[in-house]
Amino acid sequence: MYKKEGDRSYKKEPELKEYYVHPILRTFLENSGNYQLLTDALKKPSLQTKELVDQAFKEFYSEMRLVKYISSLIHYSSIDFDRKQRKIRSKAQLILDQPLSEDKENTAIKDLIPAANSEPSSLLEEDCNTLEDLATTSALYNSIRSLTEKERSVLTWHFIHGLTDTEIARKTGVSQQAVTKTKRNALKKLKRQLQAM
């Protein structure tokens, strides 16, 4: 009984039963050309028919190994990519795009930041040496003033002077992890205070 075209059954040919036990051999024999080579080699054994079957199996097995390798590579690459993306998202949270509160869905934190010429560099070309200089609303100004001196300093180095966490750590004499944590906590604190208003 054949389940589908190309499906071979050792019930019709009992001498092939041993070849259907192993899944790789079973897959190899699903190809009608390979199946024919094996049956020819069993019916008329010779060095030539044996070599033809061996060569066909070596090619098949090499292809299967390559497919398995590529499948594993794709699988683990996608896991690594996902892990890296989650790490990036956790470090660089998009809190500026989030609404201030549920009842004010149209107002985001980024809307409170001035857009003088729609160019961030134009804001920094002016006399902006502190975060307070950038505040355009009293709510934003008060929120920035409520931060600790250390938090304001880290945010100033990062947003006004464009330094990375590592560069800030070198300047201030603390670890990069401490700078990252301080920056993250300061941004969360600003977000909470602006949402409360």
UniProtKB/TrEMBL annotation:
What's one Pfam family the UniProt record gives for this protein? Sigma70_r4
Q: Which UniProt keywords apply?
A: DNA-binding, Sigma factor, Transcription, Transcription regulation
- Decide whether keyword Transcription is in the record: yes
Q: Which GO terms describe its biological process?
A: DNA-templated transcription initiation
Please name the InterPro entries in this protein's record.
Answer: RNA_pol_sigma-70_dom, RNA_pol_sigma70_r4, RNA_pol_sigma_r3/r4-like
Report the SUPFAM superfamilies cross-referenced here.
Answer: Sigma3 and sigma4 domains of RNA polymerase sigma factors
Q: Where is the RNA polymerase sigma-70 region domain?
A: 145-191
Keyword Transcription listed = yes
Task: Recall the GO molecular function terms of this protein's record.
Answer: DNA binding; sigma factor activity
In terms of NCBIfam families, this protein maps to:
sigma70-ECF (TIGR02937)
Protein name per UniProt:
Sigma-70 family RNA polymerase sigma factor
Look up and give the organism this protein is from.
Paenibacillus larvae
